[in-house]
Amino acid sequence: MPKIRTFLGLSLLSVLLACGGGGGSDAGGTPPSSGFRVSLDRSSVSFDFEEGQTVTPAVVIASSSGTPSGDLYIGAVAEGEGIDPYIDAVIEGTQARFSLRPRASLAPGNYSGRVLLKACEDAACTRTIGGTPLPVSYTVKVRKGLTVTPSELNIVAVSGNEASAVLKVNHPDGPGGSFSDTVRSDGAWLRTGVHGIGELPVTLKSLRSGIYFGNIEIRASGRLVNVPVRYTVTPPPGGDRDLQVSPSSLSLASTENASSAPQTLNVTLPSWDDTTLGIYTAYQQANGEYVQSTQGWLNVQRTATGASVVASAATLSQGSYNAQILFNPAAPGTPIVVPVSLTVGAGLVKPADQQLSVTAETSSNALQGQVAITLAAGNTVVWSASSDATWLKLLNASGQTGQALRYQVDSSELESMTNFAESEATVTVRAPQTQISPVSFKVSLRKAIPEVHYVGPYLLVQNQGAEVYVRGRGFDKVQDLAARLQLSGLAASQISRLSDTQLLLSVNPTNTGKHVIGIGNALGLGSGSTELRVIAARSYPAAALATAGKKRTILFDAERQAVYAVNVEGETLDRMRFDAQAGWSLDSVSIPAILDAGIGPDGQQLLVSSKSGILRLLNAANLHTEFSLQSSESLLGSLTYLSNGIPTGNDGRAWLAVGQSWATLQYFDHRSRSLKPRPQQAELSTSFYGGPWMVMARNGERMLVVQSASISSDPPMLYLDSSEGLLKTNPAALTFSYDMQLSADGNRVLFDFSTVRDRNFGLIGQLPSLPSTHVVQAGLISPDGKRAYVLAYADSDMGNFDQAPTQLPRVFVYDSSQASSGSIALTEVGQFDLTAYPGCRRTDGSCPRPRATISPDGQTLFVVGNEKLVVAPIPSALRSSTGARRIGVAGTPSLRTYLWRKSAP
């Protein structure tokens, strides 16, 4: 059943109440309201739940009768520690619905107290009326839950060695309580053992060097705890060694009802597992396809150094036959296919098809090969050979049987060949002046040299260390990443291979400018590269620039010193640029029915969407349209005036909600410039009704996805890591959030201006309640995740929007690195004011909240509303750990009132 959720700043009929304060009375200078009364539908509420569970709020309905003599305000105050100080209230005519929920992260135990609901004749609530305050007593019982220590595993091992750990399981029924576990990983490298008393042994098998991720789900009595696993495997001495098999192909010959002479394949197993090897055979069918079978003419026996291969022609007639031997090592080793040809009967022996590959370490010697030209029986004859491809040169085009045919790839043609594509040549061998039938074999060449597509983030700040994701393909074949990686004026203190398509670098850029990032190869061939930009830190002077129209999105382009705003009212993309001499200037480009915008993965283009389903790529320098695409469906604007921009991952995927009421999640691929559906996940059920809406960390790795706020029950919040490209359910049972702000690396998240969590959704702390004199408007978290910023308007100015404001907007600054000792409250480190209001000060839907963003160096806030862009340099004392500090208390009691009815003029 659809339901409506509103939020402060979006509608006058829904307000976020901060609890606290004391009682009042009908005493005062204003005569009492005649006959006006307030009543409640209940006088008590209770909660009983287990620690860590999400609790359904209890709704208390306040009804009014009669007519107040003047203005009517409502407010709420909570006593005791059990109730969350942030209380939703929705006003519907003569009723107000209050949603009460327990305070987050309560320790096991029992809590009780009261919530006082007040009706007042003034905003300060010095004169209560209608028989208020009315008490609602509450009880909260928090039962002991299931916990696991450590909460996550971070294991480091040298490739070639197993690793192990022990998880301590704290059962709600005591140490002897039973539990079950489920391992989720890509491959079978993560295993759990026999349960001990309150213990779960974990084994991590030897793997190739890299970083691997998994999860262990532990269940007990209907409870679930998810333990993330990060497994870092460092290279062994001499580096990783993949599976090696030689020779790369076999040519066998026999006569009918006989067997071929045995041939030997030398096998060297991977350095990370020298015991596991699967050997399989497949045979070519009449349609050209290969079908795996254990019943065929090949007999492959494992030996101490590899394998012995014999072909039996006992059931074969004269002719040529093809098969393949597959050697499958332990993951993540690369399987190797050895082509095998068998010639039965008299005639030229058909050489086996040859397979060549050009990767990072391929040398010029590996671009040549040879095959034996032989007769199954009979005297020596002369042969000649020809190739149908210009890139394959025959070094000796003729000879006698018994001699080898030598061939070589023309390296001059490699540069023009398409990377990660296969080319094929056919070599035909004839015996002139004889009746012997020609034979042919194929030589296939796959060019797969490493190439770099994107880096995330694409822009860094000088002398600020950061982790940079490098995205591309072909990385697994690079033996020495440090030697092959081309950084053009940068130095990486650490290089980690996450997969064949992703590297992770630790850098501290000292030189500004554009740095080309690529990966070289042994042949010196050109390959794809990208640029990492480094800028100097810069604090912009305070400024206010007029820019009319309701805005949905704000973006900051630090490279071009430009702020972009999606002006949905004016149907334009507004650009505000800074010049050190001229200051700020405004220009715009018309985008009919504009919906949203995002900066591309390399920062050189803007992706702009419209409600009609048109996607445009704009040149970031001049805003000219370089490409456009019409979607077959409309694009969904989940929230009219709320977006953090089109989220773009470091893999070049820009994520979009496509559809109308029920939507799908698709992505625009910046490399192919096409719109594609997200990968299918049969195990994941989604509920994108009126959603989703998303936000991405600036490095393009972690994306949060809220499915909907319009259906019951609330579907869980999802997340996606670009390295995997798959949606996952968050382990903290979070559901919806209207406003999410991520640090540059995604390790800190500010939810709805009030709660800070880490990358694993663990609670860091809560922001203290704002003073009753201010109303929250926007929130941000610093790029390094150490500061949370909350922009608030003066409460007195919100009610007097038709008059000049009496105060400036204020930014409250909090330490988001950790909570105060012995508390979940975050520490306030100070406050500062903007120089102007960015937008109107109404509280209804005609006046959307301002949108805000922060510069990559963390020194400047940019806030845009329907009237101005406000540029606010952050005082250096508040950005550092040395600023003035004030210890906050989560939910410190304070009373804020809101206008329920306006008296008749």
UniProtKB/TrEMBL annotation:
Keywords assigned: Signal
Signal peptide: 1-27
Record carries keyword Cell membrane: no
Highest taxon above the source species: Bacteria
Transmembrane segments: none
Stretches the record annotates as Disordered: 235-257
Polar residues biased stretches: 245-257
InterPro entries xref list: Ig-like_fold
Protein name as catalogued: BACON domain-containing protein
Source species of the chain: Chitinimonas taiwanensis DSM 18899
